[in-house]
Design brief:
The complex is a heterodimer of chains A (158) and B (508). Chain A folds into two domains: 8-67, no CATH class; 79-157, Glutaredoxin (3-Layer(aba) Sandwich). In chain A, 45% of the residues lie in helices and 11% in strands. Chain A is built from seven helices and four strands; from the N terminus they run ααααβααβββα. In chain A, helix 1 packs parallel to helix 3 and helix 3 (46-54) packs across helix 4 (58-67).
Chain lengths: 158, 508
């Protein structure tokens, strides 16, 4: 959906995704997850399309998208890396790992490397609290991630 | 001959998949037909990847097994249960396991979570079958008599909640499982869903029969993709076997179950916020009353229970209320699935009766810190729970005893910190997290948390310390009393407990 509103195909796909969830009640979140899975992010241009398809106001759709951390408003890097910064991981050096990750990738948390390869994000709890620091690369969970292991994981992912 | 390797995401996070593949390959190369069964985890996470081999005496354990250990283990006769430096002995005989009382987690780590045969062979469906033979009101009475209280943290009696929903008149009622396990230091919901998802499905189906519901939702957080996949697969299996859908187990009960995936909002673990999210809205908190039991999902009477509450129901129905109620202390009946995390030598799952002390969990089960340094603080009950010093290790794990000490048992998560922790920094983090995750509906939480961060920053910078500590206490009191839900209402708990027990970190 890089070209936004003018992309007729993308708008059609968004309508098709919404239609696929027609039988479910209150299905906006599953629809947004599907849109993000297909396009990699939720372009602001989908808001009026979804509002029309679901008989909601654009403000309602915008309100939902902007409420949840998961929905990206712009494309991410090819690999998304999320470092856990919750208390249990902080107890075993998560903040130091975040600092290392920022230095190693050359971008602050929340941003994508200039070559578009990696987006660095933080997350609050991956449920791996006895094997921290925990890191998620794509959908894959990793435990006991030292700075050296972080670099190795990123090397494999790239 | 069977070899068991966990498929739990914690085990996978330290290489269980690679180990399982390597064992299959090495066994084949040795001309041995080994069936590698992927189970949940036993909860001894410091030993992951933990490999178990079926022997005539029981399951022999090896761990932690690294990829490079596999060939040597197979050559040394692991497939026959031979001794090796990684041998742990019979897993059921290990002190860690023998000292526990596994009720809710009885099958986790033992069975293939997606095998219907394994499930029924290990006692699955006994609770549902018995419940379906009973009148709904009798099932509610049984759950009430068991003393089961909400395992999500609030500790509200589950049977009382069900009774309210049963008594409500409505066209449709819902069962909603809160699996938005966002608290740091808690992972038992995830482990039950990944290790024995059919138990949760069975528990929800019993609830449906008990209150007259026809439809259920599991609200599962997006940070748990493996749990989402496992639960969806388990629901498919349950439908295939007639355990869900029309005429459950041949009875008149119809119950349909759906998985809904969250989208990264901590507040959606609050029950009314979760209901808003399930309806496709922003996850803002609803004022109570009306309570969800009367006006819940889509305005209909709704049971909202945590994964472990619903997951405990099949065992209660199978073995009877008395067997559960005889465990525990005071008004905290049955077992709790405690989770040991953070800077801990032996982290993982300890399911035991209420009444075990905090110190027994941290020092005896947990073995102290992973760093080898002294324990300085533990946070019990998630990000909204109190920080406690070693001097409070005599506290029994009991809802009332913790409440009397300005703390909470919560969801049973215990996070350990060594003596390098900066408690003023942790107090600031509690406020910062609240500011970030507040739904914004009420001012004490939305604005109070921001002011809390600023005030703690001034205290840490040495600005008017005494005055700002008084201001912080005043702010905490206001947030506690004036917030709409537990997010703003309990954020002061870690802050106040840090000031109280670790005042030196605030320059006191």
């Amino acid at each position: 959906m890089q070209s936004g509103l003018t992309d007729v195909f993308a708008a059609e796909r968004v309508r098709a995704i919404a239609a696929a969830h027609q039988a479910e009640r209150g299905a906006l979140l599953p629809i947004l997850h599907d849109i993000q899975a297909e396009f990699g992010y939720v372009d602001p241009a989908v808001e009026p399309v979804l509002a029309d398809a679901l008989n909601l106001s654009t403000a309602e759709v915008h309100g939902v998208i902007s409420f949840y951390h998961d929905f990206r408003r712009e494309p991410a890097g090819r690999v998304i890396v999320r470092v856990c910064r919750a208390e249990a991981c902080q107890a075993v050096g998560a903040n130091e790992l975040v600092e290392h990750a920022e230095a190693s990738l050359g971008v602050p948390v929340g941003e994508t490397t200039r070559d578009g390869a990696v987006t660095l994000d933080e997350v609050f709890c991956l449920g791996n609290c006895a094997l921290g620091p925990a890191v998620q690369v794509g959908e894959r969970l990793h435990g006991r991630v030292s700075p050296a292991r972080f670099d190795a994981l990123l090397g494999e992912a790239r | 001959m069977k070899v068991y390797v966990p498929r739990d995401s914690a085990a996978r996070s330290v290489g269980a998949d690679e180990v399982a593949e390597r064992i299959a390959a090495a066994a084949a190369a040795a001309g041995r037909g080994a069936e590698v069964v992927r189970t949940g985890t036993r909860g001894m996470l410091w030993l992951e990847p933990l490999v178990e081999v079926e022997t005539p005496d029981g399951r022999m354990g090896y761990g932690p097994v690294l990829l490079e250990d596999v060939d040597g283990l197979v050559a040394a006769g692991m497939l026959d249960g031979a001794e090796h430096e990684l041998s742990l002995g019979l897993v059921d005989q290990l002190d860690w396991m023998r000292s526990q009382r596994r009720v809710t987690f009885a099958r986790v780590g033992v069975i293939d979570p997606l095998s219907a045969d394994d499930y029924t062979a290990h006692g699955g469906l006994a609770g549902l079958r018995r419940a379906l033979d009973m009148a709904p009101a009798d099932v509610v009475t049984e759950v009430t008599d068991s003393g089961l209280r909400g395992r999500g943290g609030a500790g509200f009696p589950t049977g009382i909640k069900w009774k309210t929903v049963l008594g409500a008149q409505a066209e449709q009622k819902f069962i909603c499982c809160n699996a938005d396990e966002g608290d740091s230091g808690t992972f038992a919901d995830r482990m039950l869903i990944e290790g024995d998802p059919l138990t949760l499905i069975e528990g929800m189906t019993i609830a449906a029969h008990a209150v007259g519901a026809t439809e259920g939702y599991v609200y599962l957080r997006s940070e748990y993709p493996d749990a989402v996949a496992t639960l969806r697969a388990a629901i498919d299996i349950a439908y295939t076997h007639g355990w869900l859908g029309e005429r459950v187990l041949g009875s008149d009960l119809r119950f349909d179950l759906h998985v809904r995936v969250g989208a990264g909002a901590y507040i959606c673990g609050e029950e009314t916020s979760m209901l808003e999210s399930l309806e496709g809205k922003r996850g803002t908190v609803r004022p109570k009353p009306p309570i969800p039991a009367l006006e819940g999902l889509f305005g209909q009477p709704t049971v909202v229970n945590n994964v472990l509450s619903l997951g405990s129901v099949p065992a209660i129905m199978a073995d009877g209320a008395a067997a559960f109620a005889e465990l525990g202390v005071g008004r905290s009946r049955g077992t709790q699935v405690f989770q040991l995390g953070g800077n801990i030598a032996r982290g993982g799952i300890v399911e035991t009766e209420f009444g075990v002390t905090l110190g027994e969990l941290v020092q005896i089960f947990g073995g102290g810190t992973a760093s080898g340094r002294p324990v300085r603080a533990v946070q019990v009950g998630g990000p909204l729970g109190a920080y406690l010093p070693v001097e409070r290790f005599d506290l029994p794990m009991d809802y009332e005893a913790f409440a009397a000490s300005g703390a909470m048992v919560g969801h049973g998560g215990i996070v350990v910190f060594d003596d390098t922790v900066d408690m003023a920094g942790m107090a600031r983090f509690a406020m910062e997290f609240c500011a970030e995750e507040s739904c914004g509906r009420c001012t004490p939480c939305r604005v109070g948390a921001v002011r809390g961060v600023e005030t703690i920053d001034r205290i840490r910078a040495g600005e008017d310390r005494e005055k700002n500590l008084v201001l912080l206490e005043d702010l905490c009191e206001l947030m506690t009393d004036g917030s709409l839900c537990a997010m703003g209402g309990l954020t002061p708990m870690p802050v106040r407990s840090a000031v109280k027990h670790f005042g030196e970190d605030f320059g006191k």
